[in-house]
Amino acid sequence: MEIVSNKVLEGERAAFWAKDTRFEGCTFRNGESPLKESRGIEVHECVFDWKYPMWYSHGVKVDRSTLNETARSGIWYTHDIEIVDSLIEAPKTFRRAGNVTLKRVKMPNAKETFWNCDGVRLEDVEAAGDYFGFGSHHIEAHNLHLDGNYCFDGASDVKVYDSVLNSKDSFWNCQNVEVYDSVIVGEYIGWNTRHMTLVNCTIESLQGLCYIQHLKLVNCHLKGTSLSFEYCEDIDAQVDEVDSVFNPSSGVIKARRIGELTMDPTKIDPAKTQIIVEE
Fold this sequence. Notes:
The protein is mainly β. The chain has a domain at 1-99. Helices cover 0% and strands 50% of the residues. It is built from no helices and 22 strands. The protein has strands spanning 2-5, 8-10, 21-24, 27-29, 39-44, 47-48, 58-63, 66-67, 79-88, 98-107, 118-128, 137-147, 156-161, 164-166, 175-180, 183-185, 194-199, 202-204, 213-222, 233-246, 251-262, 273-277. Strands 12-13-15-17-19-18-16-14 form an eight-stranded parallel beta barrel.
């Protein structure tokens, strides 16, 4: 493998079509698309200062590196990339990418990041920004801390473990969502989603968990959650307590306490939902 060490690489496509190359301690600046169409490369302790650093790349390993805010829209149409112990300050990173792994990565400006990707694994990632994960598929996240609204809109086959999501309108229009041992805070969680499972989770929401088909909750804490389950179909919910349940369409809701229950026969058929209060 060729090694390029401690260089400042400038200009348009500074290392275009790099193959089987390891970049160590390099700075890429003053030119777009420095590693476009690269293959089988390693990037160690490097800094990217300009736009579109890794488009159409394959087989990339990045560690201890930084994408500055100016390296926006940085990794599009790239497949088989792993980034560890790094900082991504740029927005709109990862579009239509595949087989992406991030470990111990911070993304303080993750606006519109991970759009239309397929095969995403996140471990110990901190991210802040709206519209994270839009339209992406086959996502697995462990210890993800996300601050940003509208996350995972239109996503499918999403599994989240031991995470904290501060996000209004999270998991809208999704298919096959599983969340375990996590905290979700935000209004209108999960609307228009099919097949959503929450296990050992804490949910804080106004009008959360509505308009869902096939909703399962196991040992969940609905803290400060009101006007929940509206028009949900096929509910299987086991929760400790909930401030209010509002016109669920069908299923079973078990709770130790329900603050307010609304079953309006002009809007739903109350006989299709079984309410069990186990004090």
